[in-house]
Design goal:
- 0% of the residues lie in helices and 56% in strands.
Length: 256
């Protein structure tokens, strides 16, 4: 926030990404910097490399965010939207991207390589449209979602999952067969097929959802046994046995 080497802003919060390279002697040098200012609060929340060495950045924004690409709509005052943008690793220039939003808060919070593109996860509330996919959330509820994008940021599939407001994906991982593990936290209820988790609407519970390569949710696991906030902060899939390791703020858990 405020003035920085990235640029002067008007006391708001900007999203930024910095490309670094190794210098002689093992020190890091700045290759390029990109700063994005859309409104009151903009944030870059995750980044990954994908096929061809491209960089994919995701986050959330208010107002009108200029990513240097088309397809990023302005957000109404007081609401946030989500964005994803593909960048050149050499220059940091925007190649393709998209944004979405609606009548409530939205954001894209996690990204990982998937096929020739990426898989992303995020949250939304109210009535919203993601690319050509429209989802309508009932009052006092929202959705989380998982979506696959190809290398040109076109939507391959989009899967909304009903959840109480305040449910947030935090990380995503993909195994060698294309199965996707999404982790996050929630205070309220979350349902995937026959698997249901009921929160107490007060403390955060950690959860993990397994999704198949075509975007179909397979199962949900959640833990609300402890009376303290328990955020799922990261996830990895063991390539040797398929175990899903979830790093949580209150513990570390392994799912088979």
């Amino acid at each position: 926030e405020g003035d920085s080497e990235l640029g002067a802003v008007d006391d708001d919060q900007d999203a930024f990404v910095v490309g670094l390279e190794n210098n002689a002697g093992g020190t890091a040098a700045v290759r390029w910097m990109k700063q994005y200012d859309g409104g009151d609060a903009d944030a870059a929340l995750d980044v990954t490399f994908a096929t061809g060495g491209s960089i994919w950045l995701v986050g959330e924004y208010d107002g009108a965010l200029d990513l240097g690409v088309s397809g990023v709509p302005s957000q109404p005052a007081g609401t946030s939207g989500g964005f994803v943008v593909k960048l050149s690793a050499e220059t940091g220039s925007s190649v393709v991207g998209l944004g979405f939003g609606g009548s409530g808060d939205s954001g894209i919070t996690a990204v990982a390589p998937f096929g020739g593109g990426v898989v992303i996860a995020g949250y939304a509330s109210g009535n919203y449209t993601f690319a050509d996919q429209e989802a309508v959330a009932v009052v006092e509820q929202g959705t989380i979602f998982v979506a696959a994008l190809d290398g040109d940021a076109n939507v391959v599939w989009f899967t909304p999952i009903m959840a109480d407001a305040g449910t947030t994906p935090r990380d995503v991982a993909v195994d060698d067969d294309g199965f996707i593990a999404v982790v996050g936290d929630a205070t309220g209820d979350l349902t995937v097929g026959a698997d249901q988790h009921s929160g107490d609407d007060t403390t955060l519970d950690a959860w993990v959802i397994l999704v198949d390569p075509n975007g179909y949710p397979i199962w949900l696991r959640a833990d609300g046994a402890i009376a303290v906030d328990d955020r799922a902060l990261g996830v990895a899939i063991d390539p040797t046995n398929g175990e899903i390791v979830v790093v949580r703020s209150a513990s570390t858990h392994i799912f088979g």
